[in-house]
Write a structure and sequence with these properties.
370 residues; alpha+beta; seven-stranded mixed sheet; three-stranded antiparallel sheet; 10 strands; binds 2-{3-[(4-chloropyridin-2-yl)amino]phenoxy}-N-methylacetamide
């Protein structure tokens, strides 16, 4: 029988009757503890919890040493009691010391493992974070603004929610003009006095002229909204830059010169410009500005639909009727204005055929315009 199993019996039941027997019994007990300890130390399954369990088994309230106290020491005959007490204390001290040493050892190796885990390998390459780039539309805006700033225009911005007066009335677009149809314009429901999403950035030109006397030389960049059925080249929102120059001596030549300068700056110095007659309620005369195709230089290709020309934007001399709305004197003042779609210009310049690519934010697309 294992000695550790015999602790539920008394010395008398174990047949131990003299001091020598007691010493031998405790020596066997100690040897058994040693051998258990040795085997456990070599067992890879022994973790923190298993060692704690071992401590309970030996030193716990209902552990082996406690049983020895109850079953060997307490009922021992008077003459054996001192030696049993001595031996029990010796065994207890040994077990305590051995298990405590083991505990410290485990703690130390756990600390070492944690320290090893936390070691930073400074030779590893760092984490590179992409910082991103300006979106192609932003890049195009910046380029357009750079060109107009270089010939003396300033930049003005304003609200996307406007009143019909600034968006239509003051631009000489009367009440029943088809552009005001709610097929083309987003009206905001329930707004007192009626509000709408601006269909062009012109309202800001009107507001600027209302506030300041001529000369005026401004460009107005921003988002504008029109009810279109979305397809490869149309959305319900697009980016626009409109420009306005008003002074006492601005002629059609100034208009043409500014337009030609802009086209050469944006598409390259060899680009030719062509004006075609057009109509806008707020300009007279009005023109469509075409540029010679930057892909085939005018000889005809798919991009220009074999015409040699690409339609860029609409423009014209400001209709005198517009001055009437802002208290400018149409007898003394003249000027030109233009409105261009930024998305369209970006698509033409960079050979993009699908408008949605500009708004899907797919990095495979964006990466091509660093
Ligand atoms: C186009 C054509 C244009 C204007 C916008 C304008 C503004 C004022 C007075 C006169 Cl305050 N004109 N703007 C003039 C001509 C054409 O836009 O197709 N835009 C996308």
């Amino acid at each position: 029988m294992l000695i550790t199993k015999s602790v539920s019996q008394s010395l008398q039941q174990l047949g131990v009757e003299n001091p020598e027997g007691v010493v031998r019994l405790f020596a066997d007990c100690d040897a058994e503890f040693e051998s258990i300890l040795l085997r456990a130390a070599e067992d890879p399954k022994m973790g923190v919890e298993q060692w704690e369990l071992m401590r309970q088994v030996w030193l716990g309230r209902k552990g082996i040493l406690s049983h020895i106290g109850d079953n060997w020491l307490k009922p021992a005959p008077k003459d054996l009691k001192p030696i049993v007490g001595q031996e029990l204390n010796k065994l207890k001290a040994h077990v305590e010391a051995a298990l405590e040493e083991k505990r410290k050892e485990i703690e130390a190796t756990a600390e070492q493992a944690a320290a090893a885990r936390d070691q930073i390998d400074l030779s590893l390459p760092g984490v590179e974070r992409a910082i991103g780039t300006r979106h192609l539309i932003r890049q195009t805006f910046d380029e357009l603004l750079r060109i107009f700033l270089s010939i003396g225009f300033s930049v003005v911005e304003g609200p996307e929610i406007e009143t019909p007066y600034y968006n239509f009335e003051a631009l000489n677009i009367p009440e029943h003009h088809p552009a005001r149809d709610n097929m083309d314009t987003f009206y905001i429901e329930g707004a007192r006095g009626g509000h709408l999403l601006r269909t062009h950035t012109s309202p800001m030109q009107i507001r600027t002229m209302e506030k300041q006397p001529p000369p005026v030389r401004i460009v107005v960049p921003g988002k504008v909204y029109r009810r279109d059925n979305p397809d490869a080249t149309h959305g319900y929102m697009f980016h626009q830059i409109e420009g306005l120059a008003v002074d006492t001596d601005i002629t059609f030549c100034d208009f043409k010169g500014a337009v030609e300068y802009f086209v050469r700056e944006f598409f390259g110095p060899k680009t030719k410009t062509r004006l075609r007659p057009s109509y806008f309620p707020f300009t007279e005369p009005s023109a469509e500005v075409d540029a010679s195709c930057h892909v085939c230089a005018g000889s005809g290709c798919r991009v220009c639909k074999f015409s040699g020309w690409i339609e860029l934007f609409g423009a014209g001399m400001v209709d005198p009727a517009v001055y009437g709305f802002v208290n400018y004197d149409p007898g003394k003042l003249s000027g030109f204005a233009f409105g261009m779609g930024v998305d369209r210009l970006a698509m033409m310049k960079y050979g993009i055929t699908e408008l949605p690519l500009l708004f899907q934010n797919d990095v495979r697309f964006l990466r091509q315009f660093p």
